[in-house]
Design brief:
Elements lengths: L1 H24 L2 E4 L2 H10 L5 E4 L14 H9 L2 E4 L9 H4 L8 E3 L14 H12 L15 H16 L6 H25 L7 E4 L5 H7 L2 E5 L10 H13 L4 E4 L6 H7 L5 E4 L13 H14 L8
Helix pairs in contact: 2-6, 6-7, 7-11
Length: 311
């Protein structure tokens, strides 16, 4: 009886140790923003554990990191961020020797490994090479809002994750193909649904909307603030008000991360349609289809600019 108990206890001990080893073997990923997390979720396998830094309702332009998030960075195998143009609070930290060898800028393609494959992704990589990772052209760092650039970002994430120890490359490959097909389908639907907005003049809180608008052929007539961390000057406010007054069916797209009081005073007395869109995907479910749902949510917000949909 004693020997049986000892054998059972030993077997249980080995099982516990094995379980702990498997848990420790999971790839620990830190993402700067929820939209980046959604792209990781789209391609990652179930054993990838993700921690996201910028919390719901906060802005990456002026975020203050918690001590627990610093510890998550220290324990991370992989860190994905857009780049220093956006997450300024991370720039100094991620450029240090402690983090730079496991940090990947999805805007600049810094340290993204190249993978020579013979399957369909070889074609993807060739196409991606043509872009030259020139997302960082000094204009708008909100690259995840353009579905074509978001797909490029996801391919980079795929490359990095496939290089991690114990990676299930076949599953990653399947996930990427599934995401690409789903994204292509929703992109087609959105393109068709947004055609009636071709003549509507859109105004946005800041330049986060530019990438999305350009991709779908929408007109951004004006931007309320050139720097979301600062209130706009009197001259810029006057210029925006003049544009609003002369615009065709003007619609202002606001963002939940920023104070709304001052833009209400700017637009007082003007005939304007309002809608709220969220470039940080705060209310989107964090799952494999999250990014696709996010793209649809952006389109739905813009569709509220149509007079028949205005509230």
């Amino acid at each position: 009886m004693t020997l049986n108990r000892l054998a059972g206890a030993t077997a249980l001990g080995f099982a516990t140790l094995l379980g702990s080893t498997n848990a420790l073997a999971a790839t620990q990923v830190v993402t700067s923003l929820k939209p980046v997390e959604l792209l990781v979720k789209a391609v990652a396998t179930e054993d990838v554990k993700i921690t996201t830094l910028v919390q719901p309702g906060a802005s990456p332009h002026n975020y203050t990191m918690k001590p627990s998030q610093r510890r998550a960075l220290e324990n991370a195998d992989v860190i994905f961020w857009v780049g220093p143009e956006l997450e300024t609070f991370l720039t100094r930290l991620l450029s240090s020797n402690e983090f730079q060898n496991r940090t990947y800028s999805l805007m600049h393609g810094e340290d993204i490994p190249e993978i020579a494959t013979e399957d369909d992704h070889g074609g993807h990589d060739d196409e991606h090479a043509e872009h030259g990772h020139d997302h960082g052209d000094g204009e708008d760092p909100h690259i995840w809002l353009d579905p074509a650039l978001a797909l490029d970002m996801t391919k980079d994430i795929y490359k990095v994750l496939s290089q991690q120890e114990g990676a299930d490359v076949a599953a990653l490959d399947t996930n990427l193909k599934r995401f690409e097909q789903g994204l292509g389908s929703v992109e087609s639907d959105i393109t068709a649904s947004l055609k009636p907005l071709a003549d509507i003049d859109l105004f946005t809180y800041h330049n986060a909307f530019t990438r999305f608008a350009e991709h779908y052929g929408l007109k951004v007539k004006g931007i309320l603030t050139l720097n979301p961390e600062l209130s706009p000057g009197a001259g810029h406010i006057a210029e925006v008000q003049q544009k609003l007054q002369g615009a065709n069916q003007p619609c202002l797209l606001t963002e939940p991360q920023f104070n709304r009081q001052w833009w209400r005073s700017i637009t007082e007395g003007l005939d304007i349609t309002f809608s709220t869109w969220d470039p940080l995907a705060t209310d989107i479910e964090t799952d494999r289809d999250g990014y696709i749902a996010f793209q649809q949510s952006l389109a739905d917000a813009v569709l509220k600019c149509l007079p028949e949909n205005a509230q």
